[in-house]
Write a structure and sequence with these properties.
Length: 148
């Protein structure tokens, strides 16, 4: 005797709406009897289990992708901090070199202002401060004045 119900008549594609799947199951229960209901229920259970497995796989994949993005962001932040530190060191070195040049220029100016190297040929024109070793009125050459 041929089976009056073909199980493929009850295979409806999943629409993504769980209520639609249950409506299909209710329609099958009305039309088919115990065999149709059992087969439709097993198919629906397999489909629900498969979708749950796919969601779990997708969640795991998204979780690992998020972890990869967080690691990349951390590396980028460390690299950015390193670049900022390098720039700061460059500016600091430039400032120190500038201060060193200013200091050397100030020393050269002081040396040029008071030539103490040739003391036999120059003398203090006014008051000599022995404590600070400076001449108040400036330096004059100690050469004999030509008489004329």
């Amino acid at each position: 005797m041929a089976d009056p119900f073909d199980p493929s008549d009850f295979d409806a594609p999943s629409s993504g709406d769980p209520q639609a799947d249950y409506r299909t199951l209710l329609d099958a229960m009305r039309k088919a009897g115990a065999e149709g209901v059992a087969e439709q229920t097993a198919t629906l259970a397999r489909q629900i289990a498969q979708e749950a497995s796919q969601r779990a796989d997708w969640s795991q994949h998204v979780g690992s992708t998020v972890q990869d993005l967080l690691r990349a962001a951390d590396r980028l932040q460390r690299a950015s901090t390193g670049i900022w530190l390098d720039r700061f060191k460059e500016w600091l070195y430039a400032a120190l070199i500038g201060l060193g040049l200013i200091f050397v220029a100030a020393l050269a100016y002081q040396w040029a202002k008071e030539p103490k190297i040739e003391q036999r040929m120059y003398g203090c024109a006014g008051h000599w401060n022995a404590k600070t070793q400076t001449c108040k009125d400036g330096w004059v050459p100690l050469q004999p004045q030509p008489t004329g």
